[in-house]
């Protein structure tokens, strides 16, 4: 076996990734513990990230059963356990900024009354700046963005469909909901408006059908809801269910 000495001397750690985080691993690595070659300088956090798992998604990191910081330098033979972030994840205030690919999700969060900043042309630096300046959680499906050192707090959004994305964000953060209090178009606050005040701008059918109106104090958009906004009501209903069920914390 002398010919293999070099290989055998390579320091290794074994990394056990929580089931909820295995979607981030390369397909061939998803079934069990992963052996990682150590270079002697990389931190635990770097080792986890190099496997594809953003640290924003990791909960406790354990080394040989004891909690360890991301800055810990793994040694040969270490067994590392990476837990998923605990749900619901506590936030001082539930405020978010969404990356440019999540416009539909942003509108749905706003519809449910969640503070969700979004502009469709924000570049990565602008997103990070806004997240940090306003203490907003950056929601994205871009793992590279979540790895940026400057970022205060971010979260990977699971799901390809907006329905699934909304459920994921609400399940993770359980933000307080306040349906119909926030402008889906601009995130501004809505105020009730008397029907008489909006009559001139309403299409005739709307005048008869709707009784409840609100206006955006930021952009001036007028909204009405009632019998004909079933789809929006369904979105809100499922949102309310998502935060009120599954007390898995
Ligand atoms: Zn508005």
Architecture blueprint of SSEs:
Elements: H1 5-8, E1 12-17, E2 34-37, H2 44-50, E3 58-63, E4 66-67, E5 79-84, E6 95-98, H3 103-111, E7 115-117, H4 124-134, E8 137-140, H5 143-146, E9 154-156, H6 162-173, E10 190-193, H7 195-198, H8 204-209, E11 212-216, E12 222-225, H9 230-244
Parallel strand pairs: 1-5, 6-7, 6-8, 8-9
Antiparallel strand pairs: 1-2, 3-4, 3-5, 10-11, 11-12
Helix pairs in contact: 3-6, 6-9
Order of strands in the sheet with most strands: 2-1-5-3-4
Q: Which segments are poorly predicted (pLDDT under 50) over 5 or more consecutive residues?
A: 1-6
First-residue to last-residue Cα separation: 51 Å
User: What share of residues are in beta strands?
Assistant: 15-25%
User: Which structural category do the helix and sheet elements fall into?
Assistant: alpha/beta
- Based on CA atoms alone, the radius of gyration comes out at 23 Å
Number of strands: 12
Number of helices: 9
Average pLDDT reading: 91
Portion in helices:
25-40%
How would a textbook summarize the main sheet? Answer: 5 strands, mixed
Question: Compounds present?
Answer: zinc ion
Shape designation: elongated
Element order, helices and strands?
Answer: HEEHEEEEHEHEHEHEHHEEH
């Amino acid at each position: 076996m002398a010919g293999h000495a070099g290989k055998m001397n390579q320091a290794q750690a074994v990394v056990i990734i929580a089931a909820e985080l295995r979607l981030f691993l390369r397909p061939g690595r998803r079934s069990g513990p992963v052996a990682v070659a150590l270079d002697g300088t990389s931190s635990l956090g770097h080792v986890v990230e190099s496997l594809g798992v953003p640290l924003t998604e990791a909960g406790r990191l354990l080394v040989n059963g004891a909690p360890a910081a991301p800055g810990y330098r793994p040694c040969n033979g270490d067994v590392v356990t990476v837990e998923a972030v605990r749900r619901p994840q506590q936030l001082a205030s539930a405020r978010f900024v969404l990356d440019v690919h999540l416009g539909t999700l942003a509108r749905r969060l706003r519809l449910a009354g969640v503070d969700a900043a979004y502009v469709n042309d924000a570049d990565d630096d602008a997103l990070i700046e806004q997240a940090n300046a306003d203490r907003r959680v950056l929601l994205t499906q871009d793992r590279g963005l979540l790895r940026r050192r400057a970022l205060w707090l971010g979260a990977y959004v699971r799901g390809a469909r907006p329905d699934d994305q909304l459920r994921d964000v609400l399940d993770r953060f359980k933000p307080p909901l306040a349906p119909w209090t926030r402008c889906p178009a601009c995130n501004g606050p809505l105020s009730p408006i008397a029907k008489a005040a909006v009559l001139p701008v309403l299409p005739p059918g709307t005048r008869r059908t709707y009784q409840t109106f609100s206006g955006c104090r930021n952009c001036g958009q007028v909204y009405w809801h009632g019998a004909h906004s079933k789809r929006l009501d369904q979105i809100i209903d499922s949102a309310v269910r998502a935060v009120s069920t599954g007390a898995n914390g």
